[in-house]
Design a protein that fits this description.
about 120 residues; mainly alpha; 4 helices; about 75% helix
Length: about 120
Amino acid sequence: MGDLPPRVILQSVASGRLGPAAYQGGMPVAALGALRHYGLALIAAGAFVAGLRMKPTALTRPLLWGMLAGVVMYAVMRFAVVPLSNAAVGESTPVRHLIGLTIHITLFGLPLSYTVFWVLRRQPV
């Protein structure tokens, strides 16, 4: 997957809606993939913020909650959203799961958590 151009990666996201035809769609389909990818991330971030606002005492552990958010996001996407979509599901190997978890924790969960914790600590809950 490391040698795929960004356009193809974004088309793979769009294939969840369009199926295999997404790979023939060019840049407009890649743009749809980017929109869907960031839209899902915003929904997940909103759920994370809503959960934290219901339990203000959780605002003392951003590392824990960020790692948990990454794990939950990976699990929901890998085992619910992608299988229920039209996207092709890649081979399930321990290495792929480890890579997916690492990406979701470091590039989604932790940045989201530390950003949200920083903002919410400065506002009344």
